[in-house]
From TrEMBL:
One of its GO terms (molecular function) is phosphoric diester hydrolase activity. PROSITE patterns: GP_PDE. It comes from Salinicola socius. Transmembrane segments: none annotated. Residues 256-279 are annotated as: Disordered. It comes from the Bacteria. It holds the Pfam family GDPD. This is Glycerophosphoryl diester phosphodiesterase. InterPro entries: GP_PDE_dom, PLC-like_Pdiesterase_TIM-brl.
Length: 279
């Protein structure tokens, strides 16, 4: 049985994206997680952005504070001063004690310095204003990162619509439509938004839908996969990239698969067989 492997990277399409930074090895959505991703050889990270109560954009996933910090309550009840006092690292490991909640500004500075690509998810929690988030987060991001280093995605259609209204050029702002599985009329959604990509749950993806998306030349990214062996078949379906807590697993697996194939092809080469017999 032939094993599948990812196609080579093409242009500025990311193949492997570190989910919330290298979140398998560092506290998610932190400066340390992004630095760890870079140090491990990752070229792209996926991060969540939402607003504090005073309108400051920060890198954070949950509506609440408890899971990933020593704080309690809701994120939107904080301002920049109170957020800066929280520890967003100790929950993951003692070596990350004192890790701050990263502001978008600080994160963009780091990503620009490291030369990395960013998939920024506009995280609109229940009751929060999508338009305000877009207005606060998108302009500074566009000001720092070039088009080929940025994909902006969201589950929230109001956020995506506002983002496209703010930047109408699809070559300057690549939008990704996030969903658990492709909507029935996914092509209408991507066309309306002039979207670059669909971001779908790999466990719910069907081969027919994946091939339809590939035929329309819409990029297809799948989240959040951590087992490269189980994921293998999706490369053959036309998936362009994977969002993973540890993309290095996929890189290692791809390298091992390529090396194995090379060894098998060499063993079947008639000249190699003849040389072996003559020894």
């Amino acid at each position: 049985m032939t094993q599948s492997s990812p196609p080579p990277s093409s242009g500025d399409t990311p193949r492997y994206i570190a989910h919330r930074g290298l979140s398998a090895r560092a506290p998610e959505n932190t400066l340390s997680a992004v630095q760890a991703a870079h140090d491990a050889g990752c070229e792209w990270v996926e991060l969540d952005v939402q607003l504090l109560g005073d309108g400051t954009p920060v890198i954070w996933h949950d509506a609440g504070l408890k899971r990933c910090s020593n704080g309690r309550g809701k994120l939107f009840k904080l301002n920049a001063e109170s957020a800066a006092k929280l520890d967003a690292g100790s929950w993951f490991g003692a070596q990350y004690r004192g890790e701050p909640i990263a502001t978008l500004e600080a994160m963009l500075t780091l990503i620009q310095r490291l030369g990395m690509g960013l998939n920024l998810e506009l995280k609109v929690c229940r009751g929060r204003n999508a338009i305000e988030l877009v207005k606060a987060a998108l302009p500074p991001t566009l000001a720092v990162l070039p088009a080929d280093k940025l994909i902006v995605s969201s589950f929230d259609r109001h956020a995506l619509t506002a983002a496209r209204a703010l930047e109408t050029d699809p070559d300057r702002l690549r939008l990704g439509v996030l969903d658990d599985k492709a909507p029935k009329r996914w092509w209408q959604e991507t066309e309306r938004l002039s979207a670059y990509s669909l971001h779908l749950d790999w466990r719910k993806l069907k081969i027919k839908r994946a091939q339809e998306i590939a035929d329309e030349e819409i990029k297809l990214f799948c989240y959040t996969a951590n087992d490269p062996v189980t994921f293998e078949k999706l490369w053959d379906w036309g998936v362009d990239g994977v969002i993973s807590d540890d993309p290095t697993r996929f890189v290692t697996h791809a390298e091992e698969t390529a090396a194995r194939r090379g060894s098998e092809e060499k063993s079947l080469d008639p000249a190699a067989v003849m040389n072996h017999r003559q020894r």
